[in-house]
Amino acid sequence: MSRKLDAAIAETGTRFLIFPQPRFIQFFEQPEVVKVTIPPNQILPGPADDRMYVLDAVNKRPYNRFNQRPYLGTFNPPVLPGADGHFDHLDLNSREFSAATMYATVRRVLDIWEDYFGRRIEWHFRMDFEKLELIPLINWDNAQSGYGFLEFGYGRTPTGEIDLSRPYCQNFDVLAHELGHSLIFAEVGIPSNNNNNNEYGGFHESAGDLVAMISSLHFNKVVERLLENTQGNLFTPNELNRIGELSESRQIRELFNYERMSTVSREPHDLSLPLTGAIFDVFVEVFQKELVQADLISPELARRSLHSLDEEEDDDAIQAEFAAAYSGKEQQFQAAILKARDYLGALLADVWNRLSADNLTYVKVGLEMLNSDLSISGGQHQTTIRECFAWREIRFPADSLIFQIRRLDDCGLVSYV
Ligand SMILES: [Zn+2]
Fold it and tell me: Which of 91, 151, 178, 245 sits CB 3.0–4.6 Å from 135 for a disulfide?
C-alpha cells in the first residue's frame, strides 16, 4: 500500500516540489516536497527516466491527428538537478520548474498506482514508443493527452484569453486525471470492435477523476486541509470535490454529487458522475467505518451523516458532533482517511485488472468491485458497495435476460407421471 511506498522511498527517492492544488488557491500558495521512486543517480537531465522524459518544446503547435510524435522542432536544454542530485532547487517562476514539476507529478502518480497494482504498468503505446513524452508549456489555452504524449498549455482568463500565469502542467489534478486515462488504456484496454459505448466513455472519465482524487490524497496538505474544513464529515461539499480546480469557484467536476443514472445525459463527462459518486460514497463509508471501529465517532452519527436528500436531518447538529469528535483526535482521523484511501486505491487497481473493455457497463464495474472487495478485505464492504450502486440506479436494464424466470418446464425438468 502507499503508506508503505512512502516509507520505502523516504531515504532513496529524489526530491521535487509540487503544488498540491494550484497556487492561487488559498492555503496552497507553497509547494510540497515530494519524492519519486527513482533515486537521484538514475534520473537523467530533462528530467527523464526509463519511463518518461520532458521535452520543453519552443514555438510548438499542438499535436493533431495528422501531426504527432516525433517532434522535430526546437526545444530548451534539459533541466539539470542541483549539486545534491535533487530537483527542489528551481525558481518557482521559471520554465525549468514547470518542466520538473510536470515530470514529478506524472512520475509520482505512476509510482502510486504501480504500488496499488503491485507491479509495473506497461504503457499502452509501447508498440510504437518506449517512453511517455511530456511537453510542459506550449502557447495554447488548452491541454491534451494522446498516444504516447501529454502536452500542456495554459488556462483561460474569465474573458476567454490565454492566461500565462496558470500553466496546466502545474495543475496536479489535471495531470493526474490525464494519466488516469493512460492507466485505463493500459490496464482495461479498448473494446475489440473499437466502438466507444457510452458507459465505457463515462467509466474512463470517472477513472480519471478517481485517480486524481486518490493521488491528491497523498499530499499531507490536502489531507490536513480536508479534515480541518470538514472535521471528518465528508458527506458535505469539500476539497475533494474540486478535482481540476481552475479557480476558487470553478472546477472541472464534482466527486460529491447527487446524480443518478436517470438524472444525467449519455455524454461521457455527465454520465461519469453517478459512477464516480457511487465509488466516492463507498470511500466515505469505508472511512466512517474506520472511525467507528477506532471509537472516534458513534455508529449512530455515521448513519445519520449518510442521509440522502430525501431524509430530514439536522445538518448543523451532525457537523457539531463531528467537530467535537475531531477535536484533539486529528492524527487518528488522518490515519483513518489514509486507510480508506489505500483500500480504495487497491480496490480500483484490482477492479481494473479484472475488467474487460468489451461491452463494459457500470453494472460490471459494480460486480467486479464486489469481487475485489472479497479478495482485499474479505468482503467487509459488500453491503456498502451494493447500496451505493443501488442509490445511483446502477443496475441491469429492466429487460435484461438476467431477470428471466425459469420454471422447471422451461428447463425440461418437469416430470409428467
Ligand atoms: Zn478526461
Answer: 151
176 CA to middle of ligand 1, Å? 10
Q: Which residue has the higher pLDDT, 246 or 157?
A: 157
Ligand 1 centroid from CA 271, angstroms: 12
CA of 269 to the centre of ligand 1 (A): 8
SS3 408: coil
**How would you classify the pairing of strands 149-152 and 143-146?**
antiparallel
Closest CA to 56 of 164, 145, 137: 137
pLDDT digits (tens, 9 = 90+) for 260-296: 999 999 998 899 999 999 999 999 999 999 999 999 9
Q: How far is the CA of 175 from the centre of ligand 1 (A)?
A: 10
Let me know if 93 is exposed, middle or buried by CB neighbors in 10 A (0-12, 13-18, 19+).
Answer: exposed
CATH class of this structure's domain 2-187: alpha beta
- Looking at residue 90, what DSSP letter applies? S
Q: Which pLDDT value is given to residue 332?
A: 97
Question: Residue 250 has what pLDDT?
Answer: 46
C-alpha cell at 306: 449518510
Domain segments of the chain as ranges: 2-187, 201-403
Q: Report the separation in Å between the CA atom of 210 and the middle of ligand 1, taken as the mean of its atom positions.
A: 11
Residue whose C-alpha is closest to residue 139's, from 120, 125, 148, 152:
152
387 Cα to the center of ligand 1, angstroms: 27
Better pLDDT: 378 or 241: 378
